[in-house]
Amino acid sequence: MPESGFTIDVDQNQYLPEGGREASAIVTVASAADAAGLTGPGPAGEGPDGSAEIIIIDCSGSMEYPHSKIAEARAATAAAVDVVRDGVLFSVIAGTNLAWPVFPADGTMARADASSRAAAKQAVTGLRASGGTAIGQWLELARQTFGRCPAKLRHAILLTDGKNQHETPEQLAAAIRECEGVFSCDCRGVGTDWEVKELRTISTALLGSVDIVPDPSGLAADFAAMMQTAMGKQVADVALRVWTPQHATVKFVKQVAPTVDDLTGRRSPSGPQAGDYPTGAWGPGESRDYHVGVEVTPAGVGQEMLAARVSLVALSPSGADVLGQGLVRAIWTDDEALSTKINPRVAHYTGQAELAAAIQDGLEARKQGDEETATAKLGRAVALAHQSGNEDTAKLLAKVVDVVDVETGTVRLRKQVEDADEMALDTRSTKTVRARK
């Protein structure tokens, strides 16, 4: 393991047919399992370069129906606060059609210790449900609060039970844009009256996760687990930097494990022929796979070129530290046995990306009443899940369709589907299974 605590491994078939233009590779990035192998603020999150956490709780009127929702949301917030380590800055925000600081009440952030955690939990007991839902305002207050603290690792948990009804989609989109690069955000929807697409838009832009908690009783364990994961992050603002020579162009960069997340549109220039793709914060023992596609200008048979240089960089106001590097190559050959061989890991993740798209397209078609498209897309998803060994997704699909033939993806749409089952399939559609080496 290098001093940076990261390794980069590139897996590809380097051989292209005569005239071939597409070089494709799976780039595996792994961090050291021991905390000492990473550079960063350290596990305690202490000091000006440490961690900051904000918990954003929906307190709109619908959280009162049933009453267990707001009660369990208070308990979940307390459970998350208990996990915040000494020295970490934290705060709690409440959201309706407005947003306001619950703790500290002046809109600052408190440094976690036994006293501040107890005070925060006491403040949370006063949360009551009333009013509407304007998630953009919640995010904006979180952005302002984070902006007043010096921490580099900034993470939020956002809980809602409803749709964003009290501001326009444009207002929410503008708030999300303002928050990009400021903090990461894990989103949770409790119950079944919220919009998966809405929360996925937030979580994707803010490099977080989205999931459903169908029963409010599951909130406390979920909040504690999210906060525990956040407490393990130690390196902030890490990016994949992809450089290509003048005769090559990046076509796409996608995270493909542990979830599918297309980063292509999030490229920011970082020098001649180079661009950065955000990966968020990292903790010890993490491993993620990225699919990088490059279009190259064909060369003669037997010639070789460097198609791309992929670096992992830690960004800071003073510049970028290179944490690891890997190379994507292209070699032209007239040997069909070499050029037609598909790298199994590239094939696997191409299928996983197609699986996620098929599920989301199929569920949308079902919602629109287009049963023919829904059946075809969800049937394709069943076949892909089976082929890739994605058992968790296969189980979720089986709650939405009746599987007639798993090999061919022949299915029948179920007439009665629980909303929670459909939403669980949607939120978890991007979760992938790792391709073996």
Describe the structure.
This protein has 437 residues and is an alpha+beta fold. Helices cover 31% and strands 32% of the residues. It is built from 11 helices and 20 strands. Strands 4, 5, 6, 7, 8, 9 and 10 form a 7-stranded mixed beta sheet that branches. It has a 6-stranded mixed beta sheet with strand order 2-18-17-11-15-14. The protein has a 5-stranded antiparallel beta sheet with strand order 1-3-16-12-13, covered by helices on one side. α1 packs antiparallel against α2, α1 runs parallel beside α6 and α9 runs antiparallel to α10.
Helices, by number, come to 11
Number of strands: 20
Subunit arrangement of the protein: single chain
Structural class based on helices, strands and sheet pairing: alpha+beta
Return residue spans where pLDDT drops below 50 for at least 5 consecutive residues: 41-48
Topology:
Blueprint (H helix, E strand, L loop, with lengths): L5 E7 L2 E3 L4 E10 L19 E8 L9 H16 L5 E7 L3 E5 L6 E2 L2 H11 L10 H13 L5 E8 L8 H11 L4 E7 L5 H10 L4 E4 L5 H13 L3 E9 L4 E10 L3 E2 L5 E2 L4 E9 L4 E10 L7 E13 L2 E15 L2 H4 L4 H24 L3 H18 L2 H7 L3 E5 L4 E4 L5 H9 L10
Quick overview of this protein structure:
This protein has 437 residues and is of the alpha+beta class. It has eleven helices and 20 strands.
Key attributes of the depicted protein:
alpha+beta, 11 helices, 437 residues, globular, 31% helix
